């Protein structure tokens, strides 16, 4: 995604998020936008097609979102601006803004084998101390790590895997 589209998606997400006055409302809207995006994914080709009129696209959106006129209006705005293709990125950014509102920090934790519940809790506690806020980690098994953990949180990568240690050792030995 180019920087112009990235900035546009960020602005649309901020505008959508600004519609919410409370955290509960922001959470509800974020979930709804995600559900809408998933439901309309099957219509992606039609929604981006220049052969289908804007009016027809708007009717599809109004019908699908009859219970949520504000979200329907938002999707229609994207259609009118010919920015509907940004919806997946806008949805991701709205979820990130919600996390910021709620003080939630997302992390991906890669381990060579499945971690126990106690190990997962401990990892989240350590990350909470480092980054602050509530940590919501996705734990992913990656046997290629051999052992240890690789963590990605707030754009930072912490690689304490055996695979990385072996690579560093090999690098030092071949100097």
Q: What are the SSEs and their pairings?
A:
Blueprint: H1 3-18, H2 23-41, H3 44-48, H4 54-64, H5 69-80, H6 87-102, E1 104-111, H7 117-131, E2 134-141, E3 149-153, E4 156-159, H8 162-173
Parallel strand pairs: 1-2
Antiparallel strand pairs: 1-3, 3-4
Helix pairs in contact: 1-6, 2-6, 4-5
How would you briefly describe this protein structure?
By secondary structure, the protein is α+β, with helices and mostly antiparallel strands.
What does this 3D model show about the protein?
The protein is of the alpha+beta class. It folds into two domains: 3-100; 103-173, 3-Layer(aba) Sandwich (Glutaredoxin), CATH 3.40.30. The chain is 61% helix and 14% strand. The protein contains eight helices and four strands, in the order H-H-H-H-H-H-E-H-E-E-E-H. The protein has helices spanning 3-18, 23-41, 44-48, 54-64, 69-80, 87-102, 117-131, 162-173; strands at residues 104-111, 134-141, 149-153, 156-159. The protein has a four-stranded mixed β-sheet with strand order 2-1-3-4. It is elongated and about 65 Å long. 18% of the residues are buried.
């Amino acid at each position: 995604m180019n920087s112009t589209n990235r900035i546009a998606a960020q602005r649309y997400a901020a505008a959508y998020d600004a519609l919410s006055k409370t955290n509960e409302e922001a959470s509800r809207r974020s979930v709804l936008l995600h559900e809408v995006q998933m439901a309309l994914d099957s219509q992606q080709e039609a929604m981006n097609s220049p052969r289908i009129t804007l009016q027809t696209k708007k009717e599809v959106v109004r019908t699908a979102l009859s219970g949520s006129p504000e979200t329907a209006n938002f999707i229609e705005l994207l259609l009118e601006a010919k920015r509907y293709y940004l919806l997946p990125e806008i949805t991701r950014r709205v979820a990130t803004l919600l996390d910021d509102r709620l003080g939630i920090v997302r992390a991906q934790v890669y381990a060579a084998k499945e971690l126990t519940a106690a190990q997962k809790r401990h990892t989240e506690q350590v990350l909470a101390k480092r980054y602050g806020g509530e940590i919501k980690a996705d734990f992913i098994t990656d046997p290629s790590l051999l052992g240890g953990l690789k963590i990605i949180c707030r754009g930072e990568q912490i690689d304490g895997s055996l695979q990385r240690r072996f690579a560093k050792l090999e690098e030092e030995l071949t100097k």
